[in-house]
Amino acid sequence: MTTRIKDIADKANVSTATVSLVLNNKPGVNQKTREKVIAVAKDLGYPLTQTLFYKQLKRGTIKFLKIVKHEHVLNRDHDVFISDYIEGLDLEARAHGYSLEINSFNTKNMNEVIHHIEDSHLNGIVILGTELNEEDILNFENRFSVPIVFIDTIYDYLNFDLVDMNNIDSVYTIISYLVKQGHKNIGLITTYVEARNFRLRELGYSKVLKHFNIPINEQFIYKVDSTFNGAYNDMIKILNTHRELPSAIFAVNDITAYGCIKAIKENGYKVPDNISIVGFDDLPLSELMDPALTTMRVSKRRIGKVAIQILNERIKSKKVFPPIKTVISGNLIERSSVKSLI
Questions:
Q1: Of 221, 142, 126, 209, which Cα lies nearest the Cα of 171?
Q2: What is the structure's pLDDT at 46?
Q3: What are phi and psi of 317, to 5 degrees?
Q4: What structural domains and CATH numbers belong to the chain?
Q5: Inter-residue contact 247 to 183 (CB < 8 Å)
Q6: How many CB atoms lie within 10 A of CB 31?
Q7: Are strands 325-328 and 331-333 parallel, antiparallel or unpaired?
Q8: CA distance 302 to 316
Q9: Which of 43, 82, 104, 251 is 20 to 30 Å from 127 by CA-CA measure?
Q10: Cα separation of 30 and 22, whole Å?
């Protein structure tokens, strides 16, 4: 009788989805469960020799830590965004003979994360730094015997390898595009939520406007929450003050753009006829918005791949070399949320 995935799942006391992830060498299963599923599959006579993953698991493991501090950036709206990071990590890890193990934490206490990670079976660690500040990252210094790479954040002066999107360059591309479309009054939708990338995009906005000799009008800078509902509610309050709107606005991420667009439209403005809007991230919903949102597409899979390449170099190298700080530019995706004034 042929062994089915359900048979393995029943005996291992896990879901069929977990068995499928293991048998196809996909991320999302911890090492202990993965080894248990493999053992059960072997015991039931499942033809593991017909797959490549079993040999790959023997070569080493890289752990990916998703750390959520406040859920104002890392939440369900960004699951697809994080999945793209994981896909890039997984593909490159397997290319170098490692398996990828994923752990998620919802905490503000980094020591809690550190105490839960046993690095004895690991070759390296990749940490999602989206909601982490400088102090959070410093908690990981000299705490593990294996190399660590942080992704989705960047600090020039920390003694860690970090890989992030090129925020300043990307904002330059966005503002340049708006200027070429004839916009001279360009506003900013930013957020009061703690996130290094948001702060860098704010900095980019100021630097690029100065580059183009465009005055920064504080009345055109709007601070809102970084969730959809929060951004919507905050923008409703802002619009109720009857502040003048610019001809175009750059939003520091797509989620805030979505919430603000809803508020703006409910107040009788038309996008892009009355105001043009550009986002950042290129989440799947951006293409389906009305109007479809012009936005910056982040090279998420590429960031994941580069992180693994850095780890692999540290794992294999017998020499200690300085920290690597890498930023990767994105691509502006032009859709219908921007009106040309020329």
A1: 209
A2: 79
A3: -80, 140
A4: 1-58 (1.10.260.40), 167-297 (3.40.50.2300)
A5: yes
A6: 15
A7: unpaired
A8: 21
A9: 251
A10: 10
Site of tokens 């920390």: 158
Instruction: Give residue 50's pLDDT band: very low, low, confident or very high (50, 70, 90).
Output: very low
Predicted confidence at residue 59, as pLDDT, reads 63
Which residues does 281 contact at the CB level (< 8 Å), separation at least 6? 81, 253, 254, 255, 295, 296, 297, 298
HEC string of the chain equals CCCCHHHHHHHHCCCHHHHHHHHCCCCCCCHHHHHHHHHHHHHCCCCHHHCCHHHHHCCCEEEEEEEECCCCCCCHHHHHHHHHHHHHHHHHHHHCCCEEEEEEEECCCHHHHHHHCCHHHCCEEEEECCCCCHHHHHCCCCCCCCCEEEECCCCCCCCCEEEEECHHHHHHHHHHHHHHCCCCCEEEEEECCCCHHHHHHHHHHHHHHHHCCCCCCHHHEEEECCCHHHHHHHHHHHHCCCCCCCCEEEECCHHHHHHHHHHHHHCCCCCCCCCEEEEEECCHHHHCCCCCCEEEECCHHHHHHHHHHHHHHHHHCCCCCCCCEEEECCEEECCCCCCCCC
What is the rounded radius of gyration, in angstroms, for the C-alpha atoms of the chain? 23
For residue 189, the cross-strand partners are 222, 251
Is residue 58 scored above 60 in pLDDT? Answer: no
Which residue is associated with the tokens 């293409």?
287
| Separation CA 20–CA 8 (nearest Å) | 10
pTM of the model: 0.81
